[in-house]
TrEMBL record:
One of its GO terms (molecular function) is ATP hydrolysis activity. Keywords: ATP-binding, Hydrolase, Nucleotide-binding, Transport. The gene is lptB_1. This is Lipopolysaccharide export system ATP-binding protein LptB. PROSITE patterns: ABC_TRANSPORTER_1 (PS00211), ABC_TRANSPORTER_2 (PS50893). InterPro entries: AAA+_ATPase, ABC_AA/LPS_Transport, ABC_transporter-like_ATP-bd, ABC_transporter-like_CS, BCA_ABC_TP_C, P-loop_NTPase. Residues 2-250 form the ABC transporter domain. It comes from Thalassobacter stenotrophicus.
Amino acid sequence: MIVVENLHRHFGGFRAVDGASLRIETGSITGLIGPNGAGKTTLFNVIAGVLKPTSGKVTMAGEEITGLPPHELFHKGLLRTFQIAHEFSSMTVRENLMMVPGAQRGETLWETWFNRRQIEADERALLAKADEVLEFLTISHLRDEKAGNLSGGQKKLLELGRTMMVDAKIVFLDEVGAGVNRTLLNTIGDAILRLNKERGYTFVVIEHDMDFIGKICDPVICMAEGKVLAEGTLAEIKANEQVIEAYLGTGLKNKVAAG
């Protein structure tokens, strides 16, 4: 679905992404791991249109999307969440979901004046869709809660719910487990697996929790210093000498010898 070819993103002399190339297969849940500063979030930002690449190419389903802005990618079904949730804190959980779909009739003055009946029908459909999403995510009891009052994990579930309000094809999740307790993280993981298996979502997940990665992701891609270092199953990645060196600063053979 997504092919990244020799992608670069430089900030002055710093090469945050330095010639990264990778492929995300349709229907996969791909884990993206690496030490802090490896370039994972910058790579997400470039693919999702938040940052322009210095050079390189990104295609989605055979169509080049390099440098397209986020709103255009949104309409193509490419969505991205952030390490820190971006909710409308003064609105309810259900209202946050209902805000997601674009080009709603009620947003135009003409439709408001002359097509009120259709607007009301659209709002009923949105309300039903939002309630379905909340039920799927097992947080329907929070539908009328102000989003700003949610816990960190509940906000991450809400962000996942937003992707369900539109025709998402691929979702990039940035540190979905950050600041989330284990119970809610398991709930998030179960929801991702269900969306993948039941609704055909493709996911790419940045995460430092290897247990979480092992539960939901295959394959796993490891980045270091802006480049793709290795790809395979989590077991293969953990056994890879270059990966061990990137994380620990020394290879396994040297550690054994030192021991």
